[in-house]
Amino acid sequence: MIEIWYAILVFVFTTYVVLDGRNFGAGALHLIVAKSAAERRQVVAAIGPLWSWHEVWLVALGGVLFVAFPRFLATAFSGFYLAVFLVLWSLILRGISLEIGGHIDNRLWQGFWDFVFTVSNILLAVLFGTALGNEARGVSLDSNGEFHLAFFTDFQVGGHTGLLDWYTISMGLFTLVILAAHGATYLTLKTEGAVHERSEWLTRRLWVGVCAGLVLITIETWFVRPEFFNNMLHRPLAWLAVLTVLAGGAAIFTGIRSRMEFRAFAGSCVIIVGLLVAGAVSIFPVILRSTLDPEHSLTVYNSSASRESLAVAIVWWPIALILASCYFVFISRRYRGKVKPSTDTQGYY
Amino acid sequence: MNPDFSNPAFWHRLHFAFTMIYHYLFPQLTMGLAWFIVFWKWKALRTGEERYAQAARFWAKIFGLNFAVGVVTGIPMEFQFGTNWAQFTKYSGEVIGQTLAMEGMFAFFLESAMIGALVWGEKRLGPRTHFLVAVGVAVGSWLSASFILTTNAFMQHPVGYAIAPDGSLQLAHIWAFLLNPWVLVQFAHNQAAALVTGSFVVTALGAFYALGDRHRDQARLYLQCGTIVGLAASFLVAFPTGDAQAKMVARYQEVSLAAMEGRFESGPAAGIALIGQPNVRERRLDNPIELPGVLSLLAYGTFHSDVRGLGAFPEDTWPDNIELLYYSFHIMAGLGTVFIATMALAVLLLFLRRLESTRWMLWVLMLAFPFPYIANTVGWMTAELGRQPWLVYGLFRTQNGMSSVVNSGSAVFTLIGFCGIYFVLGLLFVYLVGREIFHGPEAAHD
Q1: Number of H helices and number of E strands within chain A?
Q2: Residue B313: exposure state from Cβ atoms within 10 A (0-12, 13-18, ≥19)
């Protein structure tokens, strides 16, 4: 039962990164791919009226943690206190700039919100990447099962770590690059005109950057968490995930070359899923590693809710998921097709 | 009792109270407004009259702005359980986590899928689908409330739980937890109060246009719908829902009831104070003007019932801010009474066909809209201050619930951060809503 909930947790997190990561990426490139006011609105329209549905996956993630791993939620969120609020504030700015940026047909107003939108998306991508870096590296969990993280300490990855060190920073930057690549691939698929041309140009270069970054991150992870690759070798599910990454890479490569944009975007989604699943499988069952003493680490087993609570939630959760997917299909079917440069200032074509 | 600034719990409570009260300014309107929009869309569909479609279109814009601010201020709330109240999350997470997770899964996915389509999709979706979308948003917002209130009801009156070997709470009976008697009453009371806010706002805008002699057709529609719903909702807030809520408090939180009324001595034929200031140090109510026997009646159904005062309970179970609790409760109850009177008069004038020409009444209605916001806020303060000193009533103290690793400084820092962001958000909101109001409802254009 606990394993099922871990799988659900990974599923929700992965879905969130694939869906909202594409918005972070497109948003981070907003000022680069779109030059005129109409093009800026076009990008917002491509992100579309379902962006808040994407963001709800983050709330759903919080929900899964609450119901299935309350001790992990409590420990991680209070330990990462300031970082969590930076994320929340960036989310507020991102949401507001999307919702009201197009509300007034005025160059200054829109220019300002386009800028806020870009900055908040870059921040979000880097912050989530840094969070992943912290998750992979571990934190200074003490014998009470608690930790409190400074923004940075000595930038080293062992002992009393900070939020930022050489490893988590490189994870943050890598995440920005891969989500930007993901977003650019999406914009190539979803737009036409000048935005399309620029996105396509960026897509080719960003994915090369991702390849280089992935090699670097792999080597770094080898140093930071040696048991990671050892676990990977012994778990067939991780091999499958690695194969998925390779398949995704092939889809992107061929998709870009032959201008099959849907294939490229699907490959981009698959790569992200593969990487996250490979990571999740390899760290299992430790969900928060202690850099002080492995004995203090939080595992899914010592941080989960009781069997009864998990059994109740497993009944209603899938029903809710099916309903949620129905709403998504119901609305998104009505917003199919490519987006042109828009004169509609709200941008939701 | 004075707030203890050196206690981190004070700052964590202020943090939650501020973000919560600010957040709830927006959902209370959208939950009320949602059904107005559904009603107008339905009328537009049935009659084909443009004025209904126009009203729905205009209010959907106001709704959209409120909804956007509601969403961005609401998402932090869920995460604040983990950041600021980690011990509480560890203690009760697997019980209240159920409803908090249900809210995300059942309500937020529904609302977030529909909201963009409601505000911007009228042309793209066609009238029938667009009506369904409006219903979806309304249902989603009320579902969301039901899950949050179930969570709160558990904190007010815990049921359906078991205590695990490590002392934390476990879910024992999901249906007992979901059908907590407390939540049935609280949901009715709270949603009626949201309808009060919605109807007062609709009425106020109708009065504003009528006074300025603009959009006459729309003004009439807003005044009609707003005052009729406003009267019904104001009445429902008091009776039966408010009355049932008071009886619930009397039954399960006796000491809170005593504190709400500033009642220190026990005895039969307890009165309610219309005016008076609780004096906790001297343990009496200063300058009271009381209606004798009414508290006994409200709490237990007869004029003579015995109502115990604060003195009958150990002091460490008293709510820790009796004065604020007392004033919150009295302001809520007083405003509730005024709402009924105001709306009853407005509806009377409406049926005499004199509402639109009675300018002083239009002024009153136009200026009345902030008061339901105040009433909702102090109503929630009554509920939450009355629950103190407990986080989970009778089981777990507020003092033990905060995050042990987060110091006062961090809590103050993020509180100030929220103040800054929410101030800017408030300015933007007022500016954009004001713009829509001055622009006014408009006919469909292609």
Answers
A1: 14, 4
A2: middle
* CB contacts, 8 Å: B115 with chain A: 49, 52
User: Are B170 and A327 within 8 A, CB to CB?
Assistant: no
d(Cα A6, Cα A318) in Å, to the nearest integer? 14
d(CA B53, CA B65): 19
Which of A13, A99, A142 best tests the B interface by mutation, with the highest count of B CBs <10 A? A99
Contact between residue B152 and residue B185 where contact means Cβ atoms under 8 Å apart:
no
The amino acid at residue A274 is: G
Phi, psi of B373, deg, nearest 5: -65, -45
Distances in Å between the Cα of A335 and the Cα atoms of A94, A221, A346, A348, B184 are 22, 41, 15, 9, 39
CA B365 to chain CA mean position, Å: 21
Instruction: Encode pLDDT of A26-47 as tens digits.
Output: 999 999 988 888 888 888 888 8
The number of residues making up chain B comes to: 446
What is the residue extent of each domain of chain B? 31-179+417-446, 185-406
Residue spans of beta strands (DSSP E) within chain A: 150-152, 162-164, 286-288, 298-299
Distance (Å, rounded) from C-alpha A345 to C-alpha B219? 28
What is the value of pTM for the model shown? 0.92
**Do residue A81 and residue B136 have CB atoms under 8 angstroms apart?**
no
Shortest distance between the Cα of A146 and any Cα of chain B, in A, equals 7
CA distances from B206 to B59, B209, B222, B354 (A): 12, 5, 5, 14
CB contact (8 A) between residue B413 and residue A82: yes
Please judge whether A320 and B417 are an interchain contact, meaning their C-beta atoms are less than 8 angstroms apart.
no
Residues A178-204: pLDDT tens digits? 999 999 999 998 888 888 889 989 999
In terms of phi and psi (left: phi > 0; alpha: psi -120 to 50; beta: otherwise), the region of B267 is left
For B268, the 3-state DSSP assignment is strand
Contact (Cβ atoms closer than 8 angstroms) between residue B289 and residue B273: yes
Amino acid identity, residue B98? Q
Structure tokens at B405: 């690793």
**Residue A334 to residue B125, Cβ atoms within 8 A:** yes
- For residue B118, the model assigns a pLDDT of 87
Shortest CA distance from A147: residue in chain B: B405
Q: What domains does chain A contain, in order, with CATH numbers?
A: 2-335 (1.20.1630.10)
DSSP A193: T
Tokens of B65: 């702005």
Rounded to two decimals, the ipTM of the complex is 0.87
- Contact by Cβ (8 Å): A346, A102: yes
